[in-house]
Design brief:
Structural class: mainly alpha
Oligomer: single chain
Distance between the termini: 20 Å
Radius of gyration: 20 Å
Shape: globular
Number of helices: 13
Number of strands: 2
Helix content: over 70%
Order of helices and strands: HHHHHHEEHHHHHHH
Length: about 325
């Protein structure tokens, strides 16, 4: 238990109980649906994890998803109207253009948090409001359609070896971050900055650079989720990803990412994303009213935070 933590055990027990209570849980189509939802959560929560590790918060990730969705859809529609006929080129350029606003928000967040030393909570609330407002203004509350069928059919609903493409995208992101955390100086510097920013700065680390980079990576990962969600629903929407901010923080906390910074493992965040997806899926199969989903998830978060506080208190007593 000390090596792997309690989360894998809780996940296994939850799956067993759901399978016994509702046999539909083990259907292949349902398990793929759970894996798809967990992949969206894992990618955006991975970025949230990086920000929390360096001692911050990113409240703007949900709005970044919506802004990326709108900008991607508008870019593809605009490229089609100017005479570009190649669907793959439209999709490629549209996705790259869609990530530009996400990159801008990440740069702004990182600048004001790392350079101007403004509270991450206040900065990301401000950029969240602006991003959501821009997305709503541009669309006028109306979804944007008429994107290439290649985008909605292949990226949104396409599969390889029976698994959706988002699953492979999540695997690539998770493996890349695992390698960064365990095998590179960059990963160690993230932990050092979050563990003690002042000591890291005095030892010669450019702490501003790593905090800034964490916010940029978080925004770009949220943008990737926005592109895949846009392809999945088949339209650019200003309300897309409205719950992902809360869920990304929930996944990070349940996965053992310390809110004080300096602690967090990507593999536990991935398991936490699967757990939250399994829990939501199980509540839907059990026909629990959606109003209670947030209440139950909130209760799980409180238990996770209480468990973290208990472990920290025990650790401090033994030091």
């Amino acid at each position: 238990m000390k090596a792997i933590g309690i989360l894998p055990v809780v996940l296994i027990i939850t799956c067993i109980l759901l399978a016994l209570y509702e046999p539909r849980f083990l259907r292949t189509s349902n398990l793929i649906n759970v894996l798809r939802n967990a992949s969206f959560l894992a990618i955006i929560s991975a970025g949230q994890m990086l920000v929390i590790i360096v001692g911050g918060f990113d409240i703007s990730v949900g709005a970044i998803v919506a802004l990326t969705s709108v900008s991607t859809a508008l870019s593809m529609v605009g490229l089609s109207t100017i005479g570009i006929e190649s669907a793959p080129l439209i999709v490629l350029l549209g996705c790259l253009a869609g990530l530009v606003p996400a990159l801008v928000v990440g740069i702004v967040n990182g600048f004001f948090v790392s350079v101007m030393k403004i509270s991450p909570f206040m900065v990301t609330i401000g950029t969240m409001t602006m991003a959501a407002g821009i997305a709503g203004y541009v669309t006028g509350g109306t979804p944007i359609y008429d994107m290439p069928e290649l985008f909605t059919r292949e990226i949104g609903r396409g599969r390889f070896l029976e698994l959706p493409y988002i699953v492979y995208a999540a695997a690539i992101v998770l493996l890349a971050l695992w390698y960064m955390q365990t095998q590179t100086r960059l990963g160690r510097y993230f932990y050092a900055v979050g563990g003690n920013e002042k000591a890291s700065r005095l030892s010669g680390l450019n702490t501003r650079k790593y905090i800034w980079l964490a916010y940029i990576l978080s925004a770009l990962l949220a943008g990737i989720v926005g592109i895949f969600l846009t392809a999945r629903v088949g339209s650019g929407e200003a309300t897309l990803g409205s719950t992902l901010m809360l869920e990304s923080i929930s996944v990070a906390v349940i996965g053992g990412v310390a809110l004080k910074g300096g602690v967090g493992r990507i593999q536990m965040v991935a398991l936490s994303a699967i757990f939250l997806s399994v829990l939501s899926n199980g509540m839907s199969l059990a026909r629990i009213d959606s109003k209670y989903h947030i209440i139950i998830i909130g209760l799980v978060i409180i238990i996770a935070v209480a468990a973290e506080s208990y472990r920290e208190n025990r650790r401090s007593r033994h030091v």
